[in-house]
Design a protein that fits this description.
Layout lengths: L6 E5 L3 H12 L3 E5 L11 E6 L2 E6 L5 E2 L3 H10 L12 E6 L5 E5 L10 H6 L5 H14 L7 H4 L3 H7 L4 H16 L8 H13 L7 E2 L5 H15 L3 E3 L2 E8 L5 E7 L9 E5 L1 E4 L3 H7 L16 E11 L8 E5 L5 E4 L1 H4 L11 E8 L9 H15 L1 H5 L2 E14 L19 E3 L12 H17 L13
Parallel strand pairs: 1-2, 1-13, 2-9, 6-15, 13-19
Antiparallel strand pairs: 3-4, 5-8, 6-7, 10-11, 11-12, 14-17, 14-18, 15-16, 16-17
């Protein structure tokens, strides 16, 4: 293989694109990665913000992963970030009831699956005795479901939960507590196939599968700084602040990608990049715009993959109000709360010395994503004081929100049939992204898996029988 046939283009510098570029480079390709933003990381990134107490490093949203996320863990190892995002020694999720202020825990023990959850379930105070028994039966029922069965994709998770006798209280205190955070949708709006994937893999595939990994550094350190260094070591050329505007088949084979750089970012004239292989690791709407005619049997189905928002609420106090890394809440509009004091750099700011930075991760928020910050402040600050008594005694130093309006694809029933695989009908053209057919919901794991699969298909030269017509010169 020589010349242009060794060249590969990856469009998109999120986790999927970074992964694809690293794999292609390792297989001997000369890779160029093109990213619209001035940084890597996609939708899992950090930025600098001037707050009321000084400049902070803010994650756009709180991202965690599980021990079972083997592909994402592999990416962390590859870029040298695994030690910066360690996994719990053993699963422990504190769950605080806002009404009773009673603290429970979702835990596991060292017994084999499914007995590893039995002790924690028996002691979980937010479920009654009958609810605990019904949850145990449902967990056993999940083991019999096949997430790859197309019939499951057409059903909602809520329908299945009702059939298995789950009460509204059990759904709120357990199934939606986990499902909303991992799927970005409540059970009523979730494909049974995707829910089965989450719960079977996370809770029932291995004793420690659900142990939580939590970054100790900003996401930008992992997904931009370390990733960029790993790409440089691999010989990948990275073009940031560069927009892919067009993609066309070249007359003699291969592809031409038209790109332009953003003003003020080391501006380059518009140009065409040539390569034998192209991986589109961009959101589904952008992929639809760039795909040539005939690359997919029905490319418009990409536009039917809906998106779902995630809201993050950032609160800074003048003193510690939370004495654990994170917790989840029930009977409260608050969902998950994380201590981000260290990663944000708050503990280095003289104006906030001794203070604490909490980030609230709010999934499946619907119309709330549009509400003004002051409305959200009046909703969430009193609620934190209800959950954390010390917050009522603390002084609020700053409050702000970050919004990802298209944070994930919506995992609605029927979405599975809309998600394409990595291989298109156009020779040398492949798709990647958490929205593609990985079998996983829109997680960091799904993104990395899609990049791996697309790159491996590209190396093997896989394609489907239908091909678009080649353009003339």
């Amino acid at each position: 293989m020589s010349g242009e046939r060794r060249r590969a283009l990856v469009v998109g510098g999120g986790l999927a694109g970074t992964t694809a570029a690293l794999v292609l480079a390792a297989r001997g390709r000369r890779v160029t990665l093109v990213e619209t933003r001035p940084r890597l990381g996609g939708l899992a990134f950090s930025f600098r913000r001037e707050s009321a107490v000084g400049e902070l490093t803010v994650d756009n949203g709180q991202h965690v992963y599980l021990r079972c996320c083997s592909a994402y863990r592999g990416l962390l190892e590859r870029v040298g970030g695994a030690r910066l995002a360690p996994v719990q020694r053993r699963l422990e999720v504190p769950v605080l009831d806002a009404d009773s202020r009673r603290l429970g825990r979702i835990t596991r023990n060292a017994l084999p699956v499914p007995l590893h959850l039995a002790g924690g379930l028996a002691r979980y105070p937010h479920l009654g005795l009958a609810e605990r028994a019904s949850v145990a039966r449902a967990a056993l029922g999940l083991r019999r479901l096949d997430p790859d069965d197309p019939a499951l994709d057409d059903r909602s998770f809520a329908d299945w939960l009702r059939e298995t006798g789950q009460s509204p209280g059990a759904v709120a205190a357990l199934w939606d507590l986990i499902g909303v955070a991992t799927l970005n949708a409540r059970a009523e709006d979730t494909s049974l196939a995707l829910a089965a994937k989450v719960f079977r893999t996370g809770l029932l595939s291995g004793n420690g599968a659900a142990d939580i990994g939590l970054p100790r550094v900003p996401l930008g350190t992992l997904h931009d700084e370390l990733a960029r260094a790993a790409l440089a070591r691999a010989g990948v050329r990275v073009l940031l602040a560069t927009r892919a505007r067009s993609l066309r088949a070249a007359p003699g084979g291969g592809w031409r990608l038209g790109v332009s750089s953003r003003p003020g970012q080391g501006h380059r004239p518009d140009q065409e990049l040539a390569a034998e292989t192209v991986v589109l690791a961009v959101p589904q709407q952008a992929a639809h715009r760039l795909l040539p005619p005939g690359a997919l049997p029905d490319a418009d189905r990409l536009l039917a993959i809906d998106t779902a928002p995630i809201l993050n609420v950032h609160v800074i106090y003048d003193r510690p109000v939370l004495d654990r890394p994170f917790f989840a809440a029930v009977n409260s509009p608050v969902q998950w709360v994380f201590d981000r004091t260290g990663p944000s750099g708050l503990d280095t700011l003289p104006a906030a010395r001794g203070g604490q930075y909490l980030a609230l991760s709010q999934s499946a928020v619907g119309a709330e994503i549009q509400e003004p910050a002051e409305v959200l402040r009046k909703r969430y600050v009193p609620e934190l004081e209800r959950l954390l008594p010390r917050a009522a005694q603390a002084r609020l130093l700053d409050f702000f929100v970050t919004r990802e309006r298209t944070a994930t694809f919506a995992p609605t029933p029927g979405v599975g049939r809309l998600r394409p695989g990595p291989v298109t009908g156009a020779e040398g053209l492949y798709l990647a992204g958490a929205w593609t057919a990985t079998g996983w919901p829109a997680t960091m794991e799904s993104a990395v898996r899609s990049g791996l699969t697309a790159a491996r298909a590209a190396v093997q030269g896989a394609s489907t029988p239908h091909r678009p017509a080649k353009e003339s010169a």
